[in-house]
Write a structure and sequence with these properties.
Beta-lactam/transpept-like, alpha/beta, Beta-lactamase, protease, carboxypeptidase, single chain, 33% helix, Peptidase_S13
Length: 502
């Protein structure tokens, strides 16, 4: 145990040093810039030099460096680090991986580099995974769509309506707001430094008004909404109506404000039941504000388009979402069900399939198979984990995490930043704060999952010997509300972080 404590202390000193590097580097750079500048300013204050002798040479340490070298305080992981001995891993996990009341935990721990199984407690058994399901969706979206792809929300010109006795420029014209899969739209201006609200409907409205102004149009606009990218039922029948009523999910459309929330800061309130029309109404309000000075008015009602826009319809305006990798990170950090289901449908669309619940589930499983991850016994009732009918094993999850950290498809590395960090970010931000788990804070990175009788934690950690380990812990049949189940998983992951188990 003393070795573990000294390792943790050493890590603390190293963390302090690393955090101080930006300040140290900035101080050095400012001094390097300030000293030569002071030498240039000094003659103006003291008068001409008293001698024209050969000028003194500036010491090299006063010169601005040609480049800054960043101290390498933390070396890259080495495969030479010892692989933990399975019996030693079991000796750490068995005493802490116990349920509080009923139910049971399954678990798998693997060496990330070699895939060697270091711990296996019924790891092949299919279990209800809760929101760990989002790890499968993350992998599928990064492979099937691509990490740098973005979703477009466009405005197309519709046909001009006949207005008896009116001049052509004053006719009523329809414009079509076309949903392209961005459910993170903001009502205001585009905020390109953010993921939520990266594309703003106010910006889209201003672009639309400018296009119409250049075309000489003045008159009334009728906003139509095209949400035909997604088809089939907007709600998955596998979801509980109680969960929908509680705001865990809402009918799915290919455009929405704030991931279909009235207030992005309130994640427990009911959601809009028609996010497409709600988006159209926010866009119409932006048009009204931006178009008044250009002689444009907006019809009060927003109407869903019957059919699809003409193939040759003119594009009046367009805004684009954050990248798929940024959306995946947000989904994993916040465990957003609506965003997960959207990414699943967009993965199907990218593969030429319809944007339905069924196609999303099939697309996710297809992408896993393409990675070489066995899907035997796996069942996807949805792609967010809200449905209790999902079935995935701990071994399948550990293989997914291993594919993200060490697999050959480097596109999956984009998901690494999305794993919540113990005690710091996302759904792990308020965990790992008591004495039993504090040593895992900042080290464990894992996706959480919680349903009424289900809890799960799958992720990765570097152990005390410098070996990268991947793990998955899943509890099923648990006593609802039992206080000890989350700490059991967190303590187990902390034990891996402190494991010098070679």
């Amino acid at each position: 145990m003393s070795g573990t404590r000294s390792t943790a202390s050493g890590r603390g000193r190293l963390t302090t040093m690393v955090r101080s590097w930006p300040t140290v580097l900035l101080t050095v750079l400012l001094l390097a810039l300030a000293l030569p500048a002071g030498m240039l300013i000094a003659p103006a204050l003291t008068g001409p030099a008293r001698s024209t002798a050969e000028p003194a040479q500036t010491p090299s340490w006063h010169l601005v460096p040609e480049r800054l070298s960043v101290p390498q305080g933390i070396d890259p992981l080495s495969n030479a680090a010892p692989v933990p001995v399975p019996a030693n891993v079991a000796a750490r996990l068995d005493p802490v991986l116990k349920t509080d009341g009923g139910g049971s935990f399954t678990a798998v721990v693997q060496d990330a580099a070699t895939g060697k199984v270091l711990y296996d407690r019924e790891g092949a058994a299919s279990r209800i995974p809760a929101s760990n399901m989002k790890l499968l969706t993350a992998v599928a979206a990064l492979r099937g769509i691509g990490p740098e792809e973005r979703f477009s929300t466009r405005v197309l010109a519709g046909p001009a309506a006949e207005t008896p006795g009116a001049a052509p420029a004053a006719a009523t014209r329809s414009i079509v707001l076309v949903g392209g899969g961005d459910v993170l739209l903001g009502a205001g201006d585009s905020a390109e430094s953010k993921v939520l609200g990266h594309a703003g409907l106010a910006t889209l409205a201003k672009q639309t008004v400018e296009s119409l102004r250049k075309g000489g149009f003045k008159g009334q606009l009728q906003v139509l909404v095209d949400d035909s990218l997604f088809t089939g039922p907007a709600l998955n029948p596998a979801w509980s109506p109680d969960d929908v009523a509680a705001g865990e999910m809402a009918p799915l459309f290919p455009l929405a404000l704030n991931s279909a929330r009235f207030d992005p800061a309130d994640t427990t309130a009911p959601r809009p039941q028609d996010s497409a029309i709600a988006s159209g109404e926010a866009f119409a309000a932006g048009l009204k504000a931006a178009g008044a000075a250009a002689g444009l008015t907006v019809a009060p009602a927003v109407v869903r388009l019957d059919g699809k826009p003409a193939a040759d319809a003119k594009v009046l305006a367009e805004v684009r979402s954050a990248t798929v990798s940024q959306q995946v990170d947000l989904m994993l950090q916040t465990s957003d069900n609506y965003l997960a289901e959207t990414l699943g449908r967009m993965t199907a669309v990218a593969g030429g399939q319809p944007g339905t619940n069924e196609s999303a589930r099939a697309a996710v499983l297809e992408q896993l198979s393409g990675l070489g991850i066995p899907t035997d016994g796996m069942f996807a009732a949805d792609v967010s984990g809200l449905a209790p009918a999902n079935q995935v094993s701990a071994r399948q999850f550990s293989e997914v995490v291993r594919a993200i950290t060490n697999g050959k498809d480097t596109r999956l590395r984009a998901a690494l930043a999305g794993f919540p960090v113990a005690g710091l970010t996302g759904t792990l931000g308020d965990r790992y704060i008591d004495e039993s788990t504090a040593e895992g804070a900042g080290l464990v990175r894992a996706k959480t999952g919680t349903l009424n009788t289900v809890i799960a934690l799958s992720g990765y950690v570097v152990d005390a010997d410098g070996r990268l380990l991947v793990f998955s812990f899943i509890g099923n049949g648990l006593t609802p509300g039992a206080a000890g189940n989350k700490p059991a998983l967190d303590t187990a992951a902390t034990a891996l972080a402190g494991c010098g188990c070679s």
